[in-house]
Amino acid sequence: MKILSIAFKNINSLKGENFIDFEAAPFSGNTLFAITGPTGSGKSSILDVISLALFNQVPRLGKISKKEIREKGAILTRNQKEAYAKVTYETGAGRFTSSWSIEVNRNGNLNDYNMEIANLQDNSILDLKKSEVPAKNEDLIGLNYDQFIKSVLLAQGDFAKFLSAKKEERGELLEKITGTGIYRHLGIMAFERFKAETSEIEKQQDEIKLISSYLLSEENLTIFKKDLKAKTTQTESLQKDLRLIEKQLELKKTITEQEKEINGLEAKQLKLNAQLKEFENQYGESLKQHEKLQPIAEEIQSWKRFQQELEGIKDGLNKTSEKIEANKKNTGDFIQQVKVFVQEEISEENLKEKLTGFTEKIRKLQEEKASLGRDYKSKLHLFKTEIRELNLDFPENNLKAGKEILETLKTEKTEQKKQLENDLKEVDLENIASEKNRLKTELEKSREARSFSEKNLEQKQKQSDLKKEIDSLKPELENLPKIIQEEKNLLISLKKDHEILQLKKENQLKTAQLEDLRNSLKTGEACPLCGSKEHPYSEHLPHFEDDLAAKISAKTLEIDAHNSKLTQAQAKLTHLDESLQKTKKQLTEIEVGITESEQNFRKKYPEFKEPEAIDWETQLSQIKITIEKLEFFETINPQLKSIASGLPILNELEKILQRGKQLQQQLQEQYSGKNIGEDSQRLMDKWNSLLQEKKYLQDNEKEQQEQFQEKSKIYKDLQEKLKEQVLEKSFESLENAYHSLLPGNKFFDLKKQKDDFLKQKSIVDTGISTLKKQLEQFKENESKRSKEDLEKEQKQKQETFDSTQSNCEELRRKLNNNAENISRLKELENQIAEKEKDCKRWRLLNTLIGDRQGKKFNDFAQDLTLSQLIYLANIRLKDLSERYKIDKALDGEDDGLVAIDEDMGGQRRSVKTLSGGETFLLSLSLALALSDLASRNVEINSLFIDEGFGTLDPETLDQTLDTLEKLQAESGKTIGIISHVASLKERIGTQIQLTRNGQGYSSLLVK
């Protein structure tokens, strides 16, 4: 996976749009670059752009949402309305651009973020939801978010701590760096699962112990069963006695209640007799009188009803007569009203004719006025259509002023036409369309020719710049081989000196080992080693050089320094040679391009002999002015035609307005209303209403008179008939008989009420008789003992029964509990046996990996991970420096990691004793190893190292940069270093420089 370019806008302090193309210069010539700038200028924000565009996450904040942006003020630059981040990358699947964006809507609120992926091979957008984009990037790149920030975005601060940390601290750091905390969780889960499984068994075992303590002994069990049987027999006997006493008490209670009920019915009997007597006193006579008249009651009521109806008819006849008189008065008033409306004499007979004639007359005047209005609108619309080319603000309410405007405009346009004809003498005004096309073609050719000319000049400038760049590279390229050879020769000499010093040191060690033998030598006796009888060093010891170790160390440092210089010179020679070849290739391409461009220009534009000498801006401006004048001339003829067509229409509009005013005056003199049809119809409706009312009143009066005569005859016949009948029933008159009748249903209600009294009295009498017979039978079976004696005996026996029953229940409860406990014990024993089988695997798993903190399995897994990481780190370290290897500490060594010094015979040293540069080499190899471990089979060709270089001394910094240059040269990776160290600017030519202004914003410059 390789990052090709990044683009972003308004991310954190980086305001505005920015674009970094890692395929273009200066990155194409040197893929080692630095991201520099003061603290807070936004160096790490460039890395945020990459992770945000790919995964919608940044290392310092995690997942990003509009809530995070709003509450924490992150990502979106302060006071800006939109932001985006884009990353273009290349994998085995092709080239893709992943983008992230967000914006503020018109209400000032953040819209939700958006993400998408573009396939650059066919310029298509992948059909994905925004939530699916991170997963798709993970699939294309082959790394998830955590693996990506450990493989591509390397923070070495964690590895510097990791090297010297104690074993426990190292485990925590390794867990944090590699993200392998899952092993700790697995250990804890194994422990907790085993604890949960065994805790249930322990609880059940405790329960068995508790239940066993509650079990009855065999002796107590026999006693309880025997006692229960005896007490059960006793309770059955007591229960029979209690039932007998209860029946005797219930009989005494029934007798008492029966006597009370008889007394109550007798009291009710007396009350009913009194109520019946009172009813007779109050309603007896009325009922009697009504019963006499009951056969003719309906006829008497009909007679009274006819009497009331005749009185109502008389009242109606009087009211109808009054309405007829009112109708006559209203008719006269209305005729007078219509006379005023039509402005001539009228009568009841010709009213409709006169009103219709007046209406038709007014309608004709109104229709003529409306017709004139339509003609006016039609002419006005035609006028507007004719003059729409003029774009005038025409005063429709003042035709005279409008006419003056048109005549003035006609004069102006005529003068403009003459002037344009004079200016466009060289143009064929009879063929304006073809002339416009000719001029536009000429304009377009001039523009293209100018563009060709400008590009050609630009290419020539590039040609000159590249020649200068080649000239500047040649001296250094010629000098570097000499420097490399000098360094190689010097290194050969230094290594020989180093070997001599090493040999001297070894000889001194051998000489020192023979010290005891020298002390035992005697003059004249043969040496056991060489056989000599002379021993010059037995007394005079050879001279030892005490500073040999220091000299060897100094020589080693000198060799390392010249090795670094040689590596740097070789890398620089390779880089300069590649740059020279690339520049020469670019120069050749540009020279070929210039030649082809000039040939194409001469073929395509033979009319432009010397394009560099032409003032293109003046030429283009003259053509544009001619086209504009031609287009203006093209509009004048239609405008003059519109004016000539519009003036006659204005004259016709003035005539229509004059006739309209005359009609308006006639209408105002004869009719002042708004709608003659509605006013006329309203008067006609009122006249018809008056006539209909007159006819209705006359017909109604006749009908009422006929009805009065008919009902009067029926009333008299019925009255004669009823007079004889009421006299026979001892009533003085028909009126007296009517008043003796009870109103409505009152007769039936009172009769029903009396029947109810009699019915209730019969029921009460029967009940008293029946209850007295039953009472006699109850008394025959009643016990001779008193109620108090029976209750006393009942109480004593009940107490004895309750006590005995309670003892039985207690005995049963104890026996049942004992049986349940025995059953529960068997059940628990079976469950424990089953659980012991299931728990066996959890017991074994806990023994192997489980503990409360998850330390056992985590330490085992981290030790394997550490071994793998050290293995990969040593592979990387061998490429960087052959002197050191990393290893785990052995028993008795310091808790931290160990560096094996191959130059010192495999000496094991604590990493705490290493210099800053050496520590950096080891931590960088670990960081690269983690990148290899996280990326697994994914090829990573882009690395960003975020490290605090400010803590390094100048010598270590040089060594560090040499290492990175070597890594970049050998691997071909694009490597970015994030730092604010000023000296980096001198060593690394390619830089992304960040600067801050006084408002808190930052700007970006690629140099």
Question: Gist?
Answer:
70% of the residues lie in helices and 9% in strands. The protein is built from 23 helices and 17 strands.
Task: From the structure above, extract its key features.
single chain, about 1000 residues, alpha+beta, 6-stranded antiparallel β-sheet, 6-stranded mixed β-sheet, 23 helices, about 70% helix, about 10% strand
Largest beta-sheet characterization:
6 strands, antiparallel
Structural class: alpha+beta
Report the radius of gyration as a whole number of Å.
63 Å
Total of helices? 23
Q: Which ranges are low-confidence, i.e. pLDDT below 50, for 5 or more consecutive residues?
A: none
Categorize the overall geometry. flat
Proportion of beta-strand residues:
5-15%
Strand order of the largest sheet: 2-1-6-7-8-9
Per DSSP E runs of 2 or more residues, the count of β-strands stands at 17
Distance between the termini: 25 Å
Mean pLDDT: 79
Helix content: 55-70%
Describe this structure in words.
This protein has a 6-stranded antiparallel β-sheet with strand order 2-1-6-7-8-9. The protein has a 6-stranded mixed β-sheet with strand order 10-14-15-3-16-17, sandwiched between helices. The protein has helices at residues 43-55, 66-72, 133-141, 145-151, 157-164, 167-178, 182-214, 218-293, 297-342, 351-387, 399-423, 432-513, 515-520, 548-604, 616-670, 676-728, 734-740, 746-781, 787-849, 855-880, 916-935, 954-971, 984-987; strands at 2-11, 14-21, 32-36, 57-58, 62-63, 82-91, 94-103, 114-119, 124-125, 153-154, 884-887, 898-901, 907-910, 942-946, 974-979, 991-996, 1002-1006. Helix 12 packs across helix 15 (616-670). The protein has 1007 residues and is α+β, with helices and mostly antiparallel strands. It is 70% helix and 9% strand. A hairpin with a 3-residue loop joins strand 4 (57-58) and strand 5.
